[in-house]
User: What shape does this take?
Amino acid sequence: MIKSALVALIVLASPLSAAEKKAPPPAPAQEPDWSAVRKQAEALLTRDLFDPQAAQITWRGGWRWGHVKTFQLWSKREYGWLGCVGLNSKNRLGGYVGIEEKFVLLKPDGSMKTDAVIGYTSECDDGSPPVPIQAAFATPTNGGVGTAAAPSMADELAKLADLKTKGILTDEEFAAQKAKVLAR
Assistant: This one.
């Protein structure tokens, strides 16, 4: 009796069930329309925020075929296109609350799921190397939602001056780049 109870406990406590040990389903042959995915994902991420227009979304690399799984023993992996994101939003007092790490999962049926990374295991937090970001996610979105604010003119000039002092840029190259920045 004790022996069978111990065996049952070990089986239940094992990190992966037999179904989990199977190879993941292959990625679809055709990638989705990333522009449409971005619009859908950002709408989903910001729909419950107090001030959705002020949300700051930072995409943590490109989308990959991956999975998410809660830490509950009985849950199963959900596969799809996985995007990892940092979301900072304003509270009712107008201050930013800090960056929350989230994932967005585009399932094969076209539905989308998002949640905080903290309650799940996925490629967003397992140390997997980042994948190159898709072009649709490389530029900020209008209305305050995007990857990051554009650098200020002062920041760009400071970087150019630093490159010049390090000897990476010649005087002529520095002058040409400075003229481009000032012309904006």
Q: What stands out?
A: Residues 142-149 have pLDDT under 50 and may be disordered.
